[in-house]
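Support request, please re-run this one:
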Amino acid sequence: MFEADLHQTLTTVCPRVYPDVAPEPMPARPFAVYQQIGGETINPVAVPTRDDVPNKTQARMQIAVWASTRMSASETMRQIEIAMRMASAFQASPLGGFTLDYEPDTRLYGARQDFGVIHQV
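Re-run finished. Output below.
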């Protein structure tokens, strides 16, 4: 459920969104990829029973945008940050500013950002 909600949120900004890596042949630009790169466990304070296990979890999600120009990569990432903050299906907050990148083999400009996301399990 969460991954579908995340995918839908990202496609409101960028119609080409993929989990983990972009397919071959390379899609039209810009495109975005996302992956979970960790997260924090939500534990109850008391010794838990099966009924005490939280129905929410926290994920650290990394979202990367690849585009033909620096400006396109940066603007798409800015719009993704806004969409993530405004999402109603989950709670997301940036874990810092985004990092800019350049991939010389593909001649693509990139921007990536990590988010802390709390969502239903």
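The helical segments are 2-11, 70-86. The mean pLDDT is 92.
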